[in-house]
Amino acid sequence: MRVYLDNNATTKIDPLVKVKMQPFFEELYGNPNSLHAYGMEVRPHLNEALGAVYDALNIPDEDDVLITSCATESNNSVLKGVFFKHILTNPDKNHIVTTAVEHPSVLETLLFLEEHGVRVTFVDVDENGGVSAQAVKDAVTDQTILISMMWANNETGMIFPVAEVAKFAREKGILFHTDAVQAIGKLPVDLKKVRVDYLTLSAHKFHGPKGIGALYVRKGCELPNLFHGGEQMGGKRAGTLNVPYIVGMGLAIRQAVNHVEVMNTQVRALRDELEDALAKIPDTFIVGPRHMRTPNTILLSIRGVEGEAMLWDLNRAGIAASTGSACASESLHANPVMSAIGQDPELAHTAIRLSLSRFTTLEEVEYTIEVFTKAVERLRSISSTYGYKG
Ligand code: 7TS
After folding, report:
1. CATH architecture group of domain 3-10+260-384
2. Is 85 exposed, middle or buried (0-12, 13-18, 19+ CB in 10 A)?
3. Residue identifier of the C-alpha nearest atom 5 of ligand 1
4. What was the pLDDT predicted at 385?
5. Of 204 and 382, the one with more pLDDT
6. Is 327 annotated as catalytic?
7. I need a labelling partner for 283 at 20 to 30 A (CA). Which of 85, 140, 190, 315 fits?
């Protein structure tokens, strides 16, 4: 049996999305910026896909949705765009507030900008991996130009107080960006209710294709173009549009929004069943109260069981999990969020992330419980090297 429980890293393509994309690799291959029939005939499909993103986020036509190649590009574009537009021209406002547990595409971009005179405050998480709105507010100074805070964390699933911080930022005249990669399709993301200035999303996290994402930009908060050399996207992001993937993202986001309810009932129930079973294993530590997490995610530590060793045991049994973000998993890193939570350092080395999707089945969950429990027993029995006393 093969069980995929690494849906926070990427998801499988929804079969309907695959079917929808197919014609755009075959007969409908024109460049939408061309003036002939091949170009013109694909344009309505692009418009439909963009319309789906506008509907999903509940945003007005006057706001912008820039198509990007991924969330990493969207995050880089916001941070570097704010640097070029605001900080370079007014160095008195050179302060950015973020959290210590953002995705590396935010954290590392900000470290890069620090080398260019930007001052950054990385707000710590609490023992649950949560971020308090008050801590973010307290970090703001008269020099703050931007707050960047993710909607939900990819490692723990913890949901951050975006609505409250966005409101605060607006009252203070500070720009607000949220990386909503882990929220789309799992939580309601309604930008009429939660007024953000910039929002990042990525199709492959909600059963769309990899290599396509978007950046929402509120009217009045436009940023300079970072990709020059073409008139695509109204000159705001040059480069030939990836029509098949944009069409795929359009249907994927429609499907994702239509399945938020399913995620919060059926998938949540499966996640809870898995979590309840794993919590019974002695000396396990599960991060964050589950009502404060996205409905598909569990991050846990099992004392005496090295995370990488556990991954290999699971992998041998056909189960895909992770020790944390795939962006860092080639090295034997400690889980960065576990480290940020600041508990016993052993926990960060014994972290396992399990993330479900709407395609996860009860049979898969039951199989995982069985394999996982046996793997812990096996690894603990040989784990005198890790000092587990039982
Ligand atoms: N932002 C968040 C919150 C993410 O979880 C990821 C990917 C990205 C940005 C980057 O997305 P991309 O479209 O550029 O690929 N996160 C993970 C993860 O948790 N494990 O592998 C990738």
Report:
1. Alpha-Beta Complex (3.90)
2. middle
3. 154
4. 52
5. 204
6. yes
7. 315
